[in-house]
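URGENT: need a sanity check before tomorrow's submission.

F., can you look over the SAM-dependent methyltransferase record below? I want to be sure the sequence and structure line up before it goes out.
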Amino acid sequence: MVVDPVPWRDAWHTALYAAGRGFYVAGGGPAAHFTTATHRPTGALLAEALLAVPEHPVRVVVDVGAGRGELATHLVGALASGSRYAAAPGHAGPPPPDGVRVVAVDVVARPPGLDERVEWLRSPGGGALPEQLDDLEDALVVAHEWLDVVPCTVAQVDPHGELREVLVDPVTGAETFGDLLEQPDREWCAAHWPTTTPGDRVEVGLERDRAWAELVSRVRSGTLVAVDYGHTATARPDGGSLTAYVGGRQSHPVPDGSCDLTAHVAVDTLAADTVRTQRDALRALGLRGAVPPHATATADPLGYLAALEQASAEARLLDADGFGAFWWAVRRVGAPDGAARHD
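Structure tokens as predicted:
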């Protein structure tokens, strides 16, 4: 069967989010194919760090692009117990303090066995958000590895120096040139990722900017944190960053629903108050990854092992060649309940 090539943006969305067959809908979720910082000890520590970001009281915590609820489970456990390590998935403990809600948002139905303290909202997928997610007050909203899977226009400079949309065969992944970019995408590229070098590729960030702006618009007051693979204007990847992952391995991107598809985010184009690497953000919160003194192993062996595990998790989150290279874009909206509000 001959399949006409389509814009990468459309094929990408279908491959990940199509009802009944998209990679995120029909598969076992991201955790079945790769490990992120939200899993296991690093996830528990990350949850605690994220909860330390807001400069206001928090009444609701929202995890957008929640996968199967890994980070949300750590968040609710950290809120409820104050422990450095949250409960394992499926464990039901005390409710979070002072009525703080934890809401997870993803494209699938509520996963079986998810901690009952986590509320669940099903989203349409991509940059779309559920209608119920709105009018949030005193909120902490976390978008961890969400924007990198919001499909965007993929463009390439043709032999004449013009940026054209890249089309792809959804079955084979073979690419061809499409039309010149439409005006909004061309304007975005001119402002944020200008290039006329034949062969250069651009992942146009306009759809990501719009998705982030829509998420911000759902918050009356609070703090939003986008955590993602990314780049800034001084280090755009000439060849683009679109790639695929399946079964724990990086692979050639083919939009047939068999693999995860992701591209790094132009984080400096997001409407944010601060943009910095995860390493810098976590160090500002006091994480160092320092190994505890070995002398404490004799006096307090269990305490030493706990401190060693914490140091290991911190080191992984701070690793400049790993999770530490992620970017944090932080946006603060309005003011805490009872104070004057402004946008």
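My own read: The longest strand covers residues 222-228. The chain is about 25% helix and 20% strand. If you see anything odd, call me.
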